[in-house]
Amino acid sequence: MVLVEELSDVSSPTYEENQAYSYDDDDDGSLTPSMVFDQIMGPSLMLPFHEHPLHSHYSSTGQCDGCPELRENGLDGYNCDTCGFTVHKECAESSPEINHPSHQRHPLTLLTHGLPQEADQDDKCRLCGEKVGKLVYHCSICDFSLDLYCARNPLSLVVYFSKGHEHTLTLMPRLIHFICNACGLESDRCPYVCPQCDFMIHEGCIYLPRVISIIRHEHRISRTYFLGSGDWKCGVCRRRIDGRYGAYSCSICSDYAVHSRCATRRDVWDGRELEDEPEENEECEEPYRIVSDGVINHFSHREHDLRLEDGLTNIRDENIRCRACVRPVYSSTLYSCMQCDDFILHETCANLPRKKRHVLHNHQLTLYPDDNIVMDFPMLRGVFLCSACHRLCSGFRYECCNIKLDVRCGSISEPFFHECHPHPLFQTSLDSKVCVTCKQESDYVLTCIDCDFVLDFKCATLPPTVRYKYDRHPLKLCYDGDKDITGSYWCEICERKMDQKIIFYTCESSGPTTHIECVLGDFRYVKPRLHFEFNKKKWEVALNGINRPGCYKCGFRCKGPFVVVSVDYDNSYVCSLLCLWKGETLVYDSIRD
User: Fold this and answer.
1) Under DSSP, is residue 504 helix (H, G, I), strand (E, B) or coil?
2) Which region, left, alpha or beta, applies to residue 60 given φ > 0 means left and ψ of -120 to 50 means alpha?
3) Is residue 518 classed as helix, strand or coil in its secondary structure?
4) How much is the pTM?
């Protein structure tokens, strides 16, 4: 059945016809400027609705002037070099006039320079609500507009979907303010309605799954169109849920509910409908087997047993690191290998679960040891970039699909408490925000529901105390950004003035202060003496010496506690991750054998 009727059939000009717009007649056969231009850009095309010639065009991120559709394979169409006009091929071939099922009273005319200024309605498509471009179908009598995507893909006038509603739903293609019974969100156009039930719903909410499993809750949750009275709070965004409208709820936990839109977010739900599917048993293998009192066999080091040791307060060697978190052991209780000298795990790291749910991914993450680490882009072997904090790491990692988290970021759960803020923090949205403590924008942040406090994963996982080799007292993490401070702070290491609104380390006893990057550096979480590959070049992590060598990329002396040294070239030191990337053409090529 043809849903959209084209009232005018205008075929695109043929290649030969288009030559008339691009090539000038010249009896001597020499190349004209227009011919040279066409040899570079390809043959030009003249369309009836555009005054300039168009050329074939492809863009991975381009926006079409005719429709809001963003395609995974990019924009394949035409572009005007004179005015920048860009369209999909389908939009360029649109008929000048159509009859559309959502507006059957009058035909719609294709406008080629956007809506007229005298149009009463806003500049949005009547069906989807997206802003219309230069090409738009319009009825001037009814002030009715459609973008070209909705014109090509008309909504069904009636829908019967028993899992969405027991009666037939009818499209109301008009501007009308309503609250969707399924998601509880207000909208201003084109609901599907059931008059006998006083029921109105978004087109996209009709097909919401009935039973799902989300990463934020251990039990399955089910869709309902009426929660009922109560003080409902969403288990994802932590905001109030209006019990008069639809949501997802847990039949086991009577007080747990989630907004319909929050429950079906791509980072929360894995996309599977579980109605009539049997429950899955999420058994997780223990990280170690108990051999005897104080002796275990850990999954990451099955060849030897580990013994529990305590009270090692005299360990100050920076080279002795936990294999999981790559932090110094200092005075922590730890497990050490009974045969190897360099395999050590903090007791807390030895107890990390093999699988866990995490707020940043819609599947369970699996814990992997520090061997066989490979990343395709950027091209790394032996180390990895944490997806949340973007640190270079060499320890254990939680991994699934395209996400890799170091054990610090992987261990964050909700509610999260941090000493620099009195309220609990939650991962509530996918929007990037600026971290309050470091003033940098991040894609992955924890937010406070009670105030505007935002903490990114990098700052959330900073060690609360660190040791500085020239201070016998540990340095403590400090954030005074919300206080009125008089006087100035200077970094003990780089001797530069510090921004008192940015988080830093200080010693309360003797008074020195340091920048985070100066006392930790960018290679703090890579095991010292480790060899790794980046972009097919070999590097070694080394302690920074007292003379502080110069970085061959930026020319400044290396100020952090660790540097990376080229294995292939002498005296090639790099001070930071930024300098390691600098000047490199990143290779996107699998390095798996």
Assistant:
1) strand
2) alpha
3) helix
4) 0.77
pLDDT of residue 16: 39
Distance from chain centroid for Cα 251: 31
Q: Which tens digits make up the pLDDT trace of 361-416?
A: 989 999 999 887 877 666 788 899 999 999 999 999 999 988 999 999 999 999 99
- Phi and psi for 459 in degrees, rounded to 5? -75, -35
Q: What pLDDT band is residue 236 in, cutting at 50, 70 and 90?
A: very high
pLDDT digits 0-9 by tens, 79-111: 888 887 888 888 888 888 999 999 999 999 998
Q: How many CA atoms lie within 13 A of 586 on its CB side?
A: 10
Angle between helices 15-22 and 33-41 (to 10 degrees): 130
Give dist(CA 229, CA 474) in Å, integer. Answer: 52
Cα–Cα nearest to 255, from 303, 282, 279, 221:
221
- What one-character-per-residue DSSP string does 558-571 give? P-SSEEEEESSSTT
CA-closest candidate to residue 272, choices 218, 221, 202, 204: 221
Are the beta carbons of 273 and 211 closer than 8 angstroms? yes
Question: 3-state DSSP call for residue 194?
Answer: strand
Rounded to whole angstroms, how far apart are CA atoms 343 and 292? Answer: 19
Tell me the pLDDT band of 484, cut-offs 50, 70 and 90. Answer: low
Q: Are 169 and 206 in contact (CB under 8 A)?
A: yes
Residue 216 makes CB contacts below 8 A (sequence gap 6+) with 235, 236, 258, 268, 357, 359, 414
Q: What are phi and psi of 149, to 5 degrees?
A: -65, -45
Would strands 504-506 and 513-514 be described as parallel, antiparallel, or unpaired? antiparallel
